[in-house]
What does this fold into?
Amino acid sequence: MMDVVVVGSINRDLTLRLPRLPTPGETVLGSGRFSDNGGKGANQAVAAARLGSRVALIGMLGDDLVAVELLDALRADGIDVAGVGTASGTPSGMAVIGLDDGGENMIMVDPAANGSLTADHVAGFGDLLASAAVVLAQLEVPLAAVTAVTRWVRGRFVLNPAPAAPLPPDLLERVSVLVPNATELGILSGSAPPSSPEEAISLAGRLQGPGAVVVTLGGSGAVMVEGGRGRHFPAPAITAVDPTGAGDAFCGGLADALAGDASLTEAVSWAVRCGAAAAMAEGARSSLPTRDRVEAMEEP
It folds into this structure.
């Protein structure tokens, strides 16, 4: 039995350090680059595993050399990768990230093999999904695969709707906790992104279907709306180095806490600290914190 089963993407990331992010059509010369393992699914799986959860990942890699490295890295973090398949004749997924001197980023993703994840592949691991306390998914894999997950979930289903896309009502009704960021919340609600925690609570309260909505707000922490009531969770005061992995650390932390029978309030409070800890280091995967590192942070 697994604490957390993640269904999602697996990528190799290339990050370019820039003095500032370019505008459309502009070329900006960088000051360095580094490579890291990534993909929202893989990152969130590793985030939960580093916090102590037993984690399995269902996803798809290409048949290239990068796939071997990505799989070895997941195993090194203790992830059960029996659910990771291979898409023949297809490269593994890749993300190119621009990171400026102020810690802001922009991310471009080629899904590649991630786009080959099918509902049938997911169904082949139905027993694994049914055994999990928490199943966590995102939208860097086909929506049909994410929808298939809901047929097997017996525990809590957490959906991180990233990148944002219109979601069918019947899928939203099966979501225990929806975890968008401010931009994604704006797209899902058909409004401008919220500019304050109060606006985020108001917009999240309009979404129909999920049992609860938790909105990540970067340096402003997060808000939670459940049963018509909203609450703001401030973030710890930190100096952000690279926010690329913060959202994935948050989702992994949320799943880890829920799998340990924490209340949603306790889980969000823990997840905010996990996201802040990740933002203090470089890299989407390498920044993901251990439990000791999160526990050492001061409460906001």
Remarks:
- The chain has eleven helices and 13 strands.
- The CA atoms of residues 254 and 268 lie 6 Å apart.
